[in-house]
Structure formats: structure tokens, C-alpha cells
Design brief:
cytoplasm; D-Maltodextrin-Binding Protein, domain 2; 15 strands; binds 1,6-di-O-phosphono-alpha-D-fructofuranose; alpha+beta
Amino acid sequence: MTNITLRRHLTDKGHDPDLIFLLEDIASACRSTAYEVRNGPLKGNLGLTDSTNVQGEDQKPLDIIANDIFVETCANSPRLAALVSEEIEEVVWLKEPEEGDYLLFFDPLDGSSNLDTNLSVGTIFSIMRVTKDGDRNVLKKGSDQIVAGYALYGPATMLVLAHGHGVQSFTLHQGSGIFRLTHPSLTIKQDTPEFAINASRQRFWDAPIQQYVDECLQGKEGPRGKDFNMRWVASMVAEVHRILMRGGVFLYPLDDANRAKGGRLRLLYEVAPMAMVIEAAGGAGSTGTERILDLLPSEPHQRVATILGSKSEVDYIVDLHTK
Ligand code: AFP
């Protein structure tokens, strides 16, 4: 078992102690969330609450529990000025913002519609900085992120981080509760014949996506000259982690049914952090026409078209959009 803990790794990389403090709070919140997810069925925390979130989506008890864990655990981080959560409509200001303070964006429990079927779910998070005293603007480009990552509550509980030094994965040691470095440098295979999309939405797709998927389905007899495989877990964290581990591409494009809302997935606390992780591992993230990390959000819960994964495959899909 590796002896490098999360704290040792972050310290070795020379991070600001307050950032290490915040990242350890996030790790603690993920550890507690993993515990609640594992024990959900025993505590009667499955099914639905009678409330909906800011997105108008049904809230699961564990959505609320995970959100409360993050707010309570991270609120005592010394330089954390604000929280933006999928489960909270307004920005939660914890202190008067000062230059260099941190902003935390998170989806506390992504994929929670899979909880009742005991499939993997996760937490997605992103950290940015306040650029000047008193600045309450949280609408920043993904390229301004200083840390992005996710926790995957699967057979193992893993914490994956991009923090300016490639991509690492830490695995939670169930006995000690310590996250230990198990993957020191994750990189995405440049091309692999696996794509992830909700194929039940095919009738809503725009022409480039129709063409891309159709070519994949034609296999080696078709224009791609090779057979493809398809996966759809309906849990973005699980899909992205699979792509990080063995390559592939994830698509949740704009379509006729979600265009009015701007897409399905949220930019600030789902898509931008995942795009940072994927790019740091050598992959690419695009809306089909724009690099995700270049997008300037117009509101905290903005949705966006999402194509993430192996760079050659994302580039191929972007080319289809330009033709
Ligand atoms: P939930 O958090 O409501 O389960 O949504 C999960 C998600 O945001 C993302 O993790 C999945 O990739 C995507 O939605 C699944 O969307 P579909 O349910 O339309 O397949």
C-alpha cells in the first residue's frame, strides 16, 4: 500500500497551507458522504423527498445530506469566501471576500438517480480564487480554476484531483479513513473505441451528433474503419472516471429537447471541473464549437453542451460541427 497520503502529496507540491486545509476539508466531506451513501438503504435514505432543487429536479434525501455535509465541513476553512452548490439557489457567502480567498463550486451528489439501484455516484468540485478585495463575482471561466476534481463512491472510494501537477487518484483506506495515493499520474489514451451517450435522445440530436454516432455504429465497415463500444451509466463521475482510466468520449450535447435550457449538465460545478481534469490528463473538452474552459458563465447554474474525453475523438466531433 502506498504511504503517500493526500496531505503529504499536496504539501510536497508546495501548495498554500490554506488551500491544503480546504482540500482536506473537501476530502473529509467526501469521506462522510461515502459513509452516508453506503449506509443509505439502512438509514431509509433512498427514494425521494417531497422537495425539488434549484433545477426543479426531485431531491433525494442523500442529495440534501451530502450538501449539508459539504456546507458544514468546508465552512470552517480559513480562506473560503463562498460556496456555490447545485442544491442551493443563491451563492453562500461565508466572509467578506478578500484577494486570494477561495471560492468552492460543487455538485454534492451527482448521479443520485442511481442511488436506488446501488450504482456508483460521486461528488464534483472546483476551486477558484477571489481576484480583488470585495469582489463578489463568481462567474469565472473554467481556465481560472486552480483545483478541480471529483470523488467516486464506487467499489472503492476514490478522490481524483487536477491541481497544476497532472492528475492523481487517491483511494480511501476504509480502516484508517485516510486517502492514499494510488495513481500518481493519470493520462487519457488518445483514441479508444468507446463512446458514452444517452442514445434514447437520438431523435433530438443535431446533425453532427447524429453523424458521429451513426459512423460509430457502422463499425469497421463504415467510415471510421473500426468497431466501437457504447456505455451509459447516467452518472457523469463514473463515466468520466472510466474515460480517464481507459479512454473514450462522453457526450451530453445540446439537443431539441434541452436547447431551451442550454443543455443538461451545469457548467460551473459539473462540466468545467471535469474539463480541467480531462485536459490535465491530455484529453479535451468542448461544447462541439467552443473549448469548455474558455466559456464565461452568465449565471451560477448555467447549463452547457458537453463533449469530454480522448483528444482525437473530441477533435473529430468538433470537426463534424465545423463542416
Ligand atoms: P442525476 O444527478 O439527476 O442523477 O443526473 C445525473 C447527471 O447529471 C449526470 O451525472 C449524468 O451523466 C446525466 O445527468 C444523466 O442524464 P440522463 O438521466 O438524461 O441520462
